[in-house]
Specification:
147 residues, SH3 type barrels, 2 domains, 5-stranded antiparallel sheet, 2 helices, 5 strands, rod-shaped
């Protein structure tokens, strides 16, 4: 009888182990299905994001091409507006003081960072970086150079 009881306990343990194994196998299958679903969703989201990025790049490329097409116009405009040696500058003085005037001897630097070697009316020279309140007065000869 002891052997029969032992067999029953062993059989029960084996049956419990089989049920646990079956439960774990189903859980693994569920996890695999969930992972596949997440992968599909991720791929779909990724495809959507990549499509949107392509649209943005296309829009950016179009705007860049339009900007590049306008460059010759802009370059022409900026070269005409550039100060030249011989032009005069006038700088607003402090409140209650007269503006300073000088003649540009040489243009230093390039587009957007121009500065000048200036001979001031007081007869001294200095390097001048234009600021707000600076006016360039074209020398008549420099206008003819552009024509």
């Amino acid at each position: 009888m002891a052997t029969a009881a032992k067999t029953t306990k062993a059989d029960k343990k084996q049956a419990d182990g089989a049920k646990t194994l079956e439960y774990l196998q189903h859980a693994i299958q569920d996890l695999d299905r969930a992972r596949e679903h997440a992968d599909k969703e991720l791929r779909s989201d990724l495809d959507t994001a990549m499509g949107r990025m392509r649209e943005i790049v296309g829009d950016f490329r179009k705007r860049a091409e339009d900007d590049v097409a306008e460059w010759p116009e802009t370059l022409e405009h900026t070269t005409e507006d550039r100060s030249r040696a011989g032009d005069f500058i006038e700088v607003n003085g402090l409140p209650g003081r007269a503006p300073r005037r000088g003649q540009i001897l040489e243009v230093l630097g390039r587009g957007g960072h121009e500065h000048y070697d200036v001979r001031w009316d007081e007869r001294h020279t200095s390097i001048f970086f234009p600021t707000e309140g600076t006016t360039v007065i074209r020398h008549p000869r420099s206008r003819r150079d552009h024509a």
